[in-house]
Design goal:
The chain has 293 residues and is mainly beta. It contains two helices and 27 strands. It folds into two domains: 105 residues; 157 residues, no CATH class. A hairpin with a 4-residue loop joins strand 23 and strand 24.
């Protein structure tokens, strides 16, 4: 990997580049902004460099990675959407194809909503993106009397114990890039409810729909599709662990269960007077509801 002067000024996705004088032009007009940059790179890097700028997939010995389109410095809403590549230096012939020691890449950055930019491939239109974030939640133990097993001297904790119980929680973020409607009625019918069926590969009772963020851009030329960002919280089983009675139970309970600090396990709750189970959350069948897609 080399550059024309051997003095690269930066890297993009690990590819070194030089940026010649005059690069970084930014134009403004009544129709919006437009940015332009030029790069000098090693000829062998030209294909991966184009993908690194415009978005798509890069395959190497380490595997395949997906790359998002790069934004113009200081104006991240301007995404690289047009590119041109030409050779620099003396041309040679590699097989039947011309080759050069270096390449010049000219990139044009346009507003995200003005074209087809934003990543992905030229063949496939992005329908939905999915993200999963893993974290953990802590529960405070209520006021009780405790003792340490190794030294059963007893411990009186009249105010309880903070951060006593930890369990894993996953956040699913699903983004619909182009929805013809805002799905307001469907969202309101399902928000705050738990899945009654297997959804997103998550067993019933373990996925809570926390709602959606809805946005769209209205241009002078007319209204654009809606962008919907849905959020779900999952309580995975996260393996098994013994309870106070020596029985193996899921390490994390469902959304309809509470943690019983007396017995050290997740348990459903009942009304003592009616002996009926109490469900903290309503349930909905998410599959086929129109919530996604």
């Amino acid at each position: 990997m080399t550059t024309p002067t051997g003095n690269p000024c930066g890297t993009i996705n690990g590819i070194e580049f030089e940026e010649p004088e005059g690069s970084g032009q930014l134009d403004f007009s009544k129709d919006g902004a437009r940015g332009m940059r030029s790069f000098h790179i090693d000829w062998a890097d030209r294909k991966n460099f184009v993908t690194a700028l415009k978005g798509g997939s890069i395959t190497s010995s380490a595997g395949t990675i997906l790359v998002q389109a790069k934004g113009f410095p200081g104006y991240e809403n301007l995404l690289c959407q047009e590119l041109s590549v030409r050779g620099l230096g003396e041309m040679t012939v590699d097989g039947e194809d011309p080759a050069y020691p270096f390449a010049r890449v000219d990139a044009i950055y346009l507003p995200q909503d003005s074209g087809g930019g934003g990543g992905g491939s030229n063949e496939d239109e992005i329908l939905r993106t999915e993200e999963i974030d893993a974290s953990f939640v802590t529960l405070d133990a209520p006021p009780m009397q405790y003792y340490f097993f190794e030294t059963p001297s007893g411990l009186d904790a009249p105010e309880g114990l903070r951060g006593f119980k930890r369990f894993v929680q996953l956040r699913h973020t699903l983004t619909e890039e182009k929805s013809p409607t805002n799905k307001q009625a469907i969202i309101q019918a399902h928000v705050g409810r738990v899945n009654a069926d297997v959804f997103l590969g998550v067993p019933a009772g373990r996925l809570l729909y926390t709602g959606a963020r809805v946005r769209r851009v209205i241009l002078a030329s007319g209204e654009q599709p809606f962008k919907l960002v849905h959020t779900f919280l999952e309580r995975p089983e996260n393996g098994q662990m013994p309870d106070a009675h020596g029985n193996n139970r899921p390490a994390t309970g469902t959304w309809q269960q509470y943690y019983d600090f007396q017995d050290g396990m997740w348990s459903t709750i009942y009304n003592r007077a009616t002996t009926k189970q109490i469900f903290p959350y309503g349930t909905s069948t998410f599959t086929g509801s129109g919530l996604l897609g």
